[in-house]
Specification:
Strand order of the largest sheet: 2-5-1-6
Structural class: alpha+beta
Number of helices: 23
Distance between the termini: 31 Å
Number of strands: 11
Shape: elongated
Oligomer: single chain
Strand content: 5-15%
Radius of gyration: 32 Å
CATH class of the largest domain: Mainly Alpha
Largest sheet: 4 strands, antiparallel
Length: 775
C-alpha cells in the first residue's frame, strides 16, 4: 500500500471514530496530569554538573578531606560609613550571636568573633577580636581598626579596606540537602537581615552566599513556570484569534496546547524529572511549539471549507495534505531536543526530554483530538486565513520569478559574512549576572563585590608528602611564597593559608614583636604553636577547613571577584603553572570549587552540543531523504536548516560577543524547530510537482497558498513564545529565548526567500524550463 493510500485510510478512520478518539485522548490527558502532583523542585546549584563530571568529583574529594563551602553572607553597611563605632560593633556582636541559630550552621565568621591571638607574658591568648567591653572604648577601637585593616585573614573578607562595610559569613552543612532545608536557611537569613535593618535604621543588611543563590535559582524558576507560562498562553490565544478570526479555532488550539503542556509535565512528574532553572522553561516552550501542528491543520481545514467542501471532506483533505509534514516536523523537533541529552549540564537533559514529550503529545492531540473535536462540534465557519497574507506571497512569488539568482547570491553572501562574526563569539559566563539587577540577591552580591570582598572561591590542596608535614618550615615557606604571589594578582581579593596563622603565632610567641612575623625556624616549634593555638579555639572555629586530619596537606582558599568564567579559567591555568614551576616537590590539586567547576562547564558543553547538533542534522537529513523520496530535495533543504543558527550566532557575535552555558544549547534546541517550516514547504512543493503536475514557479505559488499563512502564523507564535523568555529574571533563560527567537525568525526569512529560490533554480535547470514560465 502506497503512502497516499495510507494517508487516505488514516484520514477516513479519524473522522469515522471521533468519540472513541476524544475519550482515549482525554484519558491520556487525565492519566498524565496526575503526575503533576509528583513534580519536585531542585534548587541546588550543583544540579548543573553531572555526577561523573571530573571537576565535580575533584570538588567532592576536596570537601571530603576538608569541609564544604556552602554559606550565607550578611553584608552590613552602616549609613555613617564606618564600622568601628560602638553602636555598629554592638549590632555586629548581636548579629553574630544570632547567626549561630541559623538552621544547619556549622561556623560563623565575623569581625567580632575573629579568633585573634596575642601574647600575655609567656601565655598565648586566643579570644574574640571585639567584645562588648572593647566595643565602647574609643582608644581600643582605634587600635583594633588598625589591626583589622592590616590582618590578611580579615581585610577584604570580614572588613572592607576602608573599614566602612563588614561581612558575617555563616558556613552551612546540610545533612541531606533538599529544597525544604535550603528554604529554611534562606528564610532565616532574610528574616534576620530584615529584623536588624528595621531595628537599627542607621544600617542596611544585605544577604548573599551560595545558599541564597540556590534559593534564587529556585524562586526564579518557579516564577517563570507560574507567570511566564500564563503570559505566553495569553499571547498565543491573541495571536491565534487574530490570525484565524475564529473563536472555535482559538478554543481548539487552546485545548491542544494546554493538554500537550500538562501531559508532558505530568509524565515528567511520573518519571521523577525535577524542575530546575533550565527545565522551568519547558512549559513556555511546549506551549509555543504545540501551536504549530494545530495551526497548519486548521488553516488548511478552513481553507477547504471556504472553497465549498463539507466538514468531513474538508477534514479528510486536510489530514491527507498535512499528515506527512506534521509527523516529520514533530519527529525532527523531538530529535533536536533529545540531542540536549549530550549536554554536560543535566538540567538541559531534563529540558530537552520534557519538551520532546510535549511535542509528541502535541502530535497526538493535533492529529487525533483536534479533528475529532472538529467533527462533533458545531462549527461551519467558511473563511480563508490564507487571504490575509495572499498579497505578501504574490509579491514574493513575483520577486522569485525575476530575481531568484540574486536572492540566492545575496543571502549566501550575507550568511557567510555573519558566519565570520559567529566565530568571534567568546566562551564566557558571569553567574552573578545571571539574575536581573532588581533581584535582592543580585543587589547584595554587587554591593559585596564592589565594597567588601569577592563572591567566588577557588581552592587548592597542597600536599606536604608525609603526616605532620605541614609543620615543616620549608613547606610553610613555599606555601607563604604562594600566598604572597596570589595576593599580588589583580583578580584576588583574599587568600586563606595556614602559613599566615603560623607567622602570626611565631610573632605572638616572641612578645608580639613584628620582626618575628615569619615562618617558625623549626618543625617542632611550628607543631607546638599550632597545637597550642588549636587547643584555644572554640568549637566550630577550628582549622579543620584548612588542614587535613594527619596534617599532611593544607588547603589554600582564594577569594576572587567575579570577572567571568573565561578570566577564571585563565587564572586557574596560571596558578597551576606557578605551582609546577615553583613547588615541583609537592603534589597539588587542580583548582576546584563551584567557581571553577562552573567556569569549565560552558566551554565543554558547547563542544559537546555542537557535535550533537551535527549528529542530529545528519539523522534529520536521512529522515527527510527517506520521507520525501527525493535526495535532491533533501539536500536543498539542508541549506535553510543550517544557515539560521549561523546567522543568529553571527548577529550575536556582532552585538554581544559572548556565549555562555544557556546559549550553548540553542543550536540543538532550535534545529528541530527550524526544520519544521522547511519540511512543510518542501513536502507540499514536492506534492504540487509530483501529484498536481505543476511547473516549478506554479508549484512555488501553490505552496505559498496552502502553507505560507500557517508558516507565518506559527513563526510569529514561536518568536513571541521565545521572546517571552526574555522577560525572565534569569539571564540564561532570557538570552536563550532571545537567540532562539532570532534563529527562528531568520529561518522563516530563509524559507520564504532562499528555499523557494533554490527549488526554482534547481527544478528549472532539471526540467529545462525558465523561472518565469508558469503553467
Amino acid at each position: 500500500m502506497g503512502r497516499q493510500a495510507l494517508e487516505d485510510q488514516f484520514a477516513h478512520w479519524v473522522v469515522r471514530h471521533p468519540w472513541q478518539l476524544i475519550v482515549s485522548t482525554f484519558f491520556l490527558f487525565f492519566l498524565s496530569a496526575f503526575g503533576l502532583n509528583s513534580l519536585q523542585i531542585d534548587s541546588d546549584l550543583r544540579v548543573f554538573f553531572g555526577k561523573d563530571n571530573p571537576r565535580l568529583l575533584e570538588l567532592e574529594a576536596m570537601e571530603n578531606i576538608y569541609a564544604k563551602h556552602e554559606n550565607v553572607v550578611f553584608i552590613v553597611v552602616p549609613q555613617e560609613g564606618e564600622i568601628f563605632t560602638p553602636r555598629t560593633l554592638q549590632v555586629l556582636i548581636e548579629m553574630t550571636a544570632q547567626a549561630w541559630q541559623m538552621p544547619f550552621s556549622s561556623a560563623v565568621y565575623s569581625l567580632t568573633n575573629y579568633q585573634y591571638s596575642y601574647a600575655r607574658g609567656d601565655e598565648l591568648v586566643v579570644a574574640d577580636f571585639i567584645t562588648g567591653v572593647t566595643a565602647v572604648d574609643p582608644e581600643i577601637l582605634s587600635s583594633k581598626r588598625e589591626i583589622a585593616l592590616h590582618e590578611p585573614a580579615m581585610v577584604n573578607r570580614l572588613i572592607s579596606t576602608k573599614g566602612d562595610v563588614a561581612g558575617i559569613n555563616v558556613n552551612v552543612i546540610f545533612r541531606e540537602k533538599n529544597a525544604q532545608d535550603v528554604a529554611a536557611v534562606a528564610d532565616f537569613a532574610r528574616n534576620l537581615a530584615a529584623d536588624f535593618t528595621q531595628r537599627y535604621p542607621f544600617l542596611r543588611v544585605h544577604v548573599s552566599g551560595s545558599v541564597m543563590f540556590d534559593t534564587a535559582f529556585s524562586e526564579v524558576g518557579q516564577n517563570d513556570v507560574q507567570q511566564l507560562a500564563i503570559f505566553m498562553f495569553l499571547i498565543l490565544v491573541i495571536i491565534v484569534g487574530i490570525a484565524l478570526r475564529s473563536w472555535m479555532a482559538t478554543l481548539l488550539i487552546s485545548v491542544t496546547i494546554l493538554f500537550s503542556t500538562a501531559t508532558a509535565m505530568g509524565i515528567a512528574g511520573w518519571l521523577g524529572i525535577s524542575i530546575n532553572p533550565a527545565s522551568a522553561n519547558a512549559p513556555t516552550i511546549i506551549l509555543t511549539l504545540a501551536v504549530a501542528d494545530s495551526v497548519h491543520i486548521l488553516v488548511t481545514y478552513y481553507h477547504q471549507m471556504y472553497n465549498g467542501a463539507g466538514k468531513v471532506d474538508a477534514l479528510v483533505k486536510t489530514l491527507k495534505v498535512n499528515l506527512q509534514a506534521v509527523f516529520l516536523t514533530s519527529v525532527t523537533t523531538v530529535i533536536g531536543f533529545l540531542t540536549m541529552n549530550f549536554s554536560d549540564a543535566p538540567p538541559f537533559h531534563d529540558l530537552g526530554n520534557i519538551v520532546a514529550l510535549g511535542v509528541l503529545a502535541a502530535l497526538i492531540y493535533s492529529v487525533f483530538l483536534l479533528p475529532a473535536l472538529l467533527v462533533v462540534l458545531p462549527d461551519n465557519a467558511r473563511f480563508s486565513p490564507i487571504s490575509v497574507s495572499s498579497k505578501l506571497f504574490a509579491s514574493i512569488t513575483g520577486l522569485l520569478a525575476t530575481r531568484s539568482f540574486g536572492i540566492i547570491l545575496g543571502m549566501i553572501a550575507t550568511a557567510t559574512i555573519l558566519g565570520v562574526f559567529a566565530l568571534q563569539n567568546r566562551l564566557n559566563d558571569n553567574w552573578i549576572k545571571y539574575f536581573s539587577e532588581h533581584i535582592p540577591l543580585r543587589v547584595a552580591t554587587d554591593i559585596m563585590e564592589v565594597r567588601l570582598t569577592g563572591s567566588d572561591f577557588i581552592e587548592y590542596s597542597i600536599a606536604a608528602g608525609e603526616p605532620g608535614g605541614i609543620n615543616d618550615p620549608e613547606y610553610l615557606r613555599n606555601l607563604d611564597d604562594f600566598a604572597r604571589w596570589l595576593r599580588a594578582q589583580p583578580i584576588v581579593e583574599n587568600v586563606l593559608a595556614i602559613s599566615d596563622v603560623l607567622k602570626r603565632l611565631n610573632k605572638n610567641m616572641h612578645a608580639d614583636d613584628s620582626q618575628w612575623y615569619r615562618i617558625p625556624e623549626s618543625r617542632e616549634l611550628a607543631a607546638q604553636y599550632l597545637l597550642l593555638y588549636e587547643m584555644n579555639l572554640p568549637q566550630g572555629l577550628d582549622l579543620n577547613d584548612r588542614i587535613n586530619v594527619d596534617k599532611s596537606a593544607s588547603r589554600v582558599v582564594i577569594i576572587v571577584k567575579n570577572h567571568g568564567t573565561a578570566a577564571l579559567r585563565k587564572f586557574d591555568s596560571t596558578v597551576q603553572q606557578w605551582l609546577r614551576e615553583n613547588t615541583p616537590q609537592y603534589m597539588h590539586s587542580r583548582g576546584t570549587g563551584l567557581t571553577i567547576v562552573w567556569a569549565n562547564i560552558s566551554e565543554n558543553n558547547i563542544r559537546s552540543m555542537l557535535v550533537a547538533a551535527f549528529g542530529a542534522l545528519f539523522l534529520i537529513s536521512i529522515i527527510l531523504f527517506i520521507a520525501l523520496r527525493r535526495v535532491d530535495m533533501g539536500l536543498i533543504s539542508l541549506i535553510p536548516n543550517i544557515l539560521p543558527a549561523v546567522c543568529a550566532f553571527g548577529l550575536w557575535g556582532l552585538i554581544v560577543g559572548e556565549i555562555g552555558l544557556g546559549l550553548s544549547v540553542v543550536v540543538s534546541m532550535t534545529l528541530g524547530i527550524v526544520v519544521d517550516d522547511t519540511v512543510h514547504f518542501v513536502s507540499k512543493y514536492v506534492r504540487a510537482r509530483d501529484v498536481d503536475k505543476l511547473q516549478p514557479l506554479a508549484a512555488i505559488q501553490h505552496t505559498f497558498q496552502i502553507a505560507g499563512s500557517a508558516m507565518l502564523i506559527t513563526t510569529v507564535a514561536l518568536v513571541a513564545g521565545f521572546l517571552v523568555l526574555t522577560l525572565s529574571d534569569y539571564k540564561m533563560s532570557a538570552d536563550m529565548g532571545l537567540l532562539s527567537a532570532a534563529t527562528i525568525a531568520i529561518a522563516l526569512l530563509l524559507d520564504f526567500l532562499l528555499l523557494p529560490a533554490l527549488l526554482l533554480r534547481f527544478d528549472c535547470r532539471v526540467t529545462g524550463g525558465s523561472p518565469q514560465h508558469i503553467k
